[in-house]
Amino acid sequence: MARRDIPRRPDGGRSSPPPSRQPSALRRWAGRLFVWGAGFALLGVIALVVAVAVTARSLPGYQELKSSQTGQMIVVRAADGSEIVTLGPSYGKWVPYERIPQAMKDAMISVEDRRFESHWGVDPIGIVRSVMVRVESGYWKQGGSTITQQLARNIFLNNTKTFGRKAREWVLALALEQKFSKHQVLELYLNKVYFGGGAYGIDSAARKFFGHAGEEITLPEAAIIAGLVKAPSRYSPTADAEAAVGRAGVVLKTMQENGVITAQQAADIDLKKVKMVEDRASQNSARYFTDWALPQLDLILPENDQPIEVWTTLDPVMQRAATSAIAGFAPKGAQGALVSLDRDGAVLAMVGGTDYVTSNYNRAVNAVRQPGSAWKLFVYLSALEGGYTPDDRVVDEPVTIDGWTPRNDGARYAGEIDLRTAFAYSKNTVAAQLGNEVGFGTVANMARRFGITTPINTLPSMVLGSSDVRVIDMVRAFASVQAKGMSVTPFGIRKVTTTDGEVLYQHRAEASQQLVPPYVAAGMTDLMQTAVNIGTGRAAQIGRPTAGKTGTTSSNKDGWFLGFSSGITTGVWMGRDDAKAVPGLQGGTAPARAFAAFMRVATAKRPVEKFDTELKLPQWQLEPDDEAMQANPDDYFYVDEQGNLVDPSRRQRDPEGDVIEDPNSPPEGVPADVPQAANDDFLNRATGRQQQRPAPAP
Questions:
Q1: What is the pLDDT of residues 227-282, one digit of tens each?
Q2: Residue 682 backbone phi and psi in degrees, to 5
Q3: Fewest Cβ atoms nearer than 10 Å: which of 46, 182, 312, 467?
Q4: Of residues 204, 236, 285, 373, which has the active-site annotation?
């Protein structure tokens, strides 16, 4: 082996050989970390790609995402189509991408995701900017979320601020962009994002805040709507219009910076001139009506979760008049209720208290109170059906029935008067005598026949209204008199549709029953018209024919007025919830005045109608009593022991019209569906007539 020459040192010694170039330990570890990091990054990218691909495949289809909603939206509309209230989340109508105003697209992209068209669902620049702001400020001030990320969060995730949720959000956003186009993502976002006040999507927001469809959004309106996404509750126009306008100004400035509008366009916009829908919170009295009507949806609709529109019978003008009448005339410390029905039973107005916010208890349909003399409606109906006429003479004098002695107001007695005068001046002694004559059970049956659903006692004092009733039931009874004795059933929903107009339910009038003959209803109208013209109900006069009846309970605990005019029937009740006396409260004072104030508005656009009070008496009432039953049995009206009307026309007949005889059928003249116990005595009680019986054979 050749010998290497080793250089000598200056002192004559030999120098050591130069060290070999070995890599340092730090560089070795750095290299290893880079390799491992690159490997892990590659694995991470592969895992992300796989995760995005798997997630994209598992995502619902576009149509399924369009229809997915949480909760059911119910829009309640008045009779004129105006919106009363929106319950549940409001999604509005779906607006396709092509029909979304360009101003709305530009505003949302500018303020929420200016690089929306260029990123893949996650914006790295936005994430870096968010981190830098975090370092500078010490807390997370900007989220850096793209429109696609927000869509993923709204549909699939929640708002929990954790890195795990953020990672899932990124994967979902990337998957959404892989599966759907940019136009589809933006369409989904604009139709699903929450804008506050229960409004989801631009159509719902436009209708709630501006009163028109989402396809009609203008540039200043788009700026207001786009500004809501950041903090819907803070910038809601109905909550703080000034804050909403201020935030919209920021949106317009951002749009100008992004070049989608010019500086001149931004300067020409006066956001304060944007017309916004007034907050309906002040119209709280309509909630009494919706609380009564909407539970009926469970009975009339099949189970569904799609957004619906409920078209009701409520008249907004009449409802405001009803609210003012109750609030304006109810005595201090007292409550009030009002129900108004149209000819067909449609509820035109309903007020259940002086203020829904302070008390949402609906006294119009839930409270049970004594009606006082308003109950005399059923006493006089029974007397008229039993053969009395308004001109018949009666005697107003002290009377005692089974130990009970009724007294007139002021303990005054008029002596011999006609029936019309006795009713007009609400003579208690006459009502007691009539009830005793026709039978207290007959009066109870009459009340049940006319729709009173609460328990009814048959003590002598019942003729003065000692049984509790509901306001809506009493109004129904008076409405049936106005309808010439035909039954009237209150209803509040005319139809239910989807937001696309598909009819899910259409109200159909129930078959009416003849509760009393028309001449009985005519006689009753005669009596009630006199009560308003010259009697206790004079305060209810409205300058056109009006019929009605007052009611006052002992110690002035309850005051009532019920009546009708021009096809509208209205009932008013006032009193305290604790049933304490209200000084000065009588049916002919505050309730009658509230009735008049409301009815002047309610009937203003209706023609004046004269009442038909001509008595066209049946043949049996014009003949001697012993010939009464010789007339056609179908001309009579019967009730069973529960007060239910029995229809004689349902008896079986042969082709020639004769009644088919049956060995087990009741006697001639008695309907087949009346129990055998319904003998002559029962019929006499039910019809209120006294039939002469032949003397028994010796």
A1: 888 877 678 776 677 888 889 899 999 999 989 999 998 888 988 888 887 654 44
A2: -65, -40
A3: 46
A4: 373
